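Lab notebook, bench 4. The sequencing result for the construct came back, and we need a structural model before the next group meeting so we can plan mutations. Quick request posted to the team channel:

Model the 3D structure of this chain.
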Amino acid sequence: MVENLAPTLCYYGLTGLQQQLVAATGRMPCLAAYYKERCNMSPAAALILEMQIYPIIRNTIPRKAKPIGSEDYKELVQDTAATAAAMIDAMEKSGKAPIPSSIAYYSIQRTKSGRRSYGDSRTDVMNPGYQMDNEGSVCSLQAPVGGEDEDFTVGDMIAARTEDIAAKVLRQIDWDDFMQTLDARKRTIVQELMVGGGTGDIARRLAVTSARIVQLKREIGQAIRKFMGDAILVDSVSESVWQRDIRCLRERNEWKHTKIDQMDDPEQANIAETMFG
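Done. Here's the predicted structure in token form:
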């Protein structure tokens, strides 16, 4: 009986139902039968992996390997077992007899060096090998920074304070369509205003009075509201959608971590209990 070998089995292409069974039970009663049915690995090689190699990996990894980032020892054991299974499969395809001690040793060494069954690139910042070679680490965007009195996260420090790019692109598409609805004189006024031109400068360029330019600016403003809606001014200065979503999620999580039984206000306690159970 082998425990925690679900990643190894998935590596060799178990069906969805089989993966669910392994995930639910955490045990596989007969690896050899499954390998005979689903893989090119022989039943004898599967038994070697089950009976001789996996016990060595399971007992050695927690003592010799170091988890990187969010990894844990169980995950390293599973990944090392997947590496060993790949080695056995390669040796059988080349006509060589599997050597349990050697396969276990080199699989463990591969894990210790930062290589994994899913890749061994040492230029990818997300790869454990890169993090072992360089003074860098992967941290959560929700990790707190600053002092105890400051509620800032890494995401707050690196997030752009400007408007959402998607909103800018959508507004630009609408703006181009709106500009096509204006006559040549009004388009000139808009273009001059966008580069900082004053009312007097625009009036002199178009050979009209300043009062006429003010009148035309009001007409342009009314046309914008009619074309884009009355809420266009509010939308232009409102909080970005992505910033609002992050803020709401953070506020919701803060409510979740608040102990209802410590709330002095019964009304607030009832609201929190209704929202979050």
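The longest strand covers residues 2-3.
Will bring this to the meeting.
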